[in-house]
Design a protein that fits this description.
binds zinc ion; Rossmann fold; alpha/beta; 466 residues; binds adenosine monophosphate; 5-stranded parallel β-sheet
Length: 466
């Protein structure tokens, strides 16, 4: 298996440290809001990585954190805790927000057939681990206390910029959002391991520590959780490209200082999904979620196919027109797969050959786009239906497109006033056609007042009750 390694900046042979055992770590979501489909592109491609490793015979243990404290609105250690911001926005407690959006995240993952890692750990459950780690870093001389916060001293790190490739004079490159100068730092790139002082004194979650009541920095979470659950060596660490700097750079610095040796051999980064206006962001008003795609009438797995059609290291631009294309391809593929008869003997030689082809394509830095062509080719192969089914089922262990799963037929009971509502929908469509938007809005409002929500989809307008 060959994988692009951000650390080596090239495609490398993947060799786990311990035989066929792979320790895989994924940076989890910050649960202050719904995940957008960009975030989910990262988790989806990481899911493909995990499933392909298993398919190829590796024994994978995968851990993921849930960031429910410490991720500030700027990655440069300034700004408000994102969780607190979410709690204020929704007039709830931080823990209520964390629970709600953790559940929402896994529900989105479910819809996209993204498997939940076997180890999922909220940061707030590991505070003792972080404190122990910070204390050790202080004892070893890698950290210092200044104005109430504990900082990591990046000048002590071994080759701090190895992962990001930044030159020391472009220190803050890659930091998201606003960056303010923190005058307590010895070096510009130093980062907070433990906060007791921040400009935002209303931080809701705080814990006792040897340095005062406070809370952990975001970066220490991933080092602490991966160390606790996967041990002192990692094979692969995953994330989106925005995580390379400063987050993963800081994870390496503190983990290697703590363990006293190289920590993780391979760094797997997924390029961003952008919308047509540029970067996808949760702060841009209505953002693209799986629920929004569903409301517009798309099958979530059409989005999975859309992602698989592109290489994970290429930026991908989302548009509804492109998703329409993926949905059409998905429906066609599934229809043809389901039409295959389930009788006759499977041609084991053909199946083994198909597996080999699949492994060859996917082993080349997870070339999902190229592996997908095998799926289409399978339908044209000169073998019986049972063999085609077996090959498709085999590939779908990694693609997870449910190609052979019959859609559940939803029992729909129409309300008594269904015909009247459909009449109103037609009236609204006519009003829109005549550019009488006031009338169209009035019809929407009239229905909304009765608890009927109109849903515009590419196939036309439908409605939801309640
Ligand atoms: P967050 O919840 O902000 O911590 O982000 C969760 C994951 O999504 C991280 O691995 C990010 O690197 C990744 N991510 C953020 N924005 C995008 C995007 N537009 N496309 C792909 N992945 C992203
Ligand atoms: Zn992380």
């Amino acid at each position: 298996m060959k994988l692009y390694n951000t650390l080596g900046k090239q495609i490398e042979d993947f060799v786990p440290r311990d035989g066929n055992k792979v320790k895989l770590y994924t940076c989890g979501p910050t649960v202050y809001h719904f995940a957008h489909i960009g975030n989910l592109r990262s988790y989806l491609m990481e899911d493909v990585l995990e499933k392909f490793l298993r398919y190829a015979g590796y024994d994978v243990t995968r851990a993921m954190n849930i960031t429910d404290v410490g991720h500030l609105t700027s990655d440069g250690d300034t700004g408000e805790d994102k969780m607190l911001k979410g709690a204020k926005r929704e007039h709830k407690t931080v823990m209520e927000i964390a629970q709600f959006y953790t559940d929402a995240f896994f529900s989105d993952c479910d819809k996209l057939n993204i498997k939940k890692p076997e180890i999922v750990v909220p940061a707030t459950s590991c505070i003792d681990t972080f404190i122990e780690m910070v204390q050790t870093l202080l004892d070893k001389g890698y950290a210092y206390l200044a104005d109430g916060n504990v900082y990591f001293d990046t000048s002590k790190a071994n080759d701090y910029y190895a992962l990001s490739g930044h030159a020391a004079d472009e220190l803050m490159v890659g930091v998201r959002d606003d960056v303010e100068e923190d005058t307590s730092k010895k070096n510009k790139s130093d980062f907070v391991l433990w906060f007791t002082k921040s400009k935002f004194e209303d931080q809701e979650l705080k814990w006792d520590s040897p340095w005062g009541v406070g809370y952990p920095g975001w970066h220490i979470e991933c080092s602490g959780i991966s160390g606790k659950y996967l041990g002192e060596y990692l094979d692969i660490h995953c994330g989106g490209v925005d995580n390379i700097f400063p987050h993963h750079t800081n994870e390496i610095a503190q983990s290697e200082a703590y363990f006293g040796h190289k920590w993780c051999n391979y760094w797997f980064h997924v390029q961003h999904l952008n919308d047509e206006t540029g970067k996808m962001s949760k702060s841009k008003g209505e953002f693209l979620t799986v629920s929004l795609l569903e409301e517009k009438g798309y099958h979530p797995l059409a989005y999975r196919l859309f992602c698989l059609q592109s290489h994970y290291r290429k930026p991908l631009t989302f548009s509804f027109a492109a998703l329409d294309g993926a949905e059409a391809a998905y429906n066609k593929l599934k229809k043809r797969a389901l039409a295959l008869k389930n009788d006759g003997e499977v041609d084991e030689t053909a199946l083994a050959g198909a597996r080999e082809d699949f492994i060859e394509k996917m082993s080349m830095d997870l070339n999902t786009a190229s592996a997908l062509t095998l799926l289409f080719d399978t339908l044209k192969m000169d073998v019986n239906d049972a063999t085609k089914r077996a090959i498709i089922a085999d590939y779908d262990r990694v693609f997870s497109l449910d190609l052979l799963k019959e859609e559940e037929k939803k029992e729909e009971t129409l309300p008594d006033n269904h015909d009247w509502i459909m009449g109103k929908i037609a009236e609204r469509a006519d009003a829109k056609k005549a550019k009488d938007y006031a009338r169209a809005d009035a019809i929407r409002a009239e229905l909304a007042a009765m608890g009927i929500t109109l849903v515009d989809t590419p196939q036309g307008t439908t409605y939801k009750l309640g």
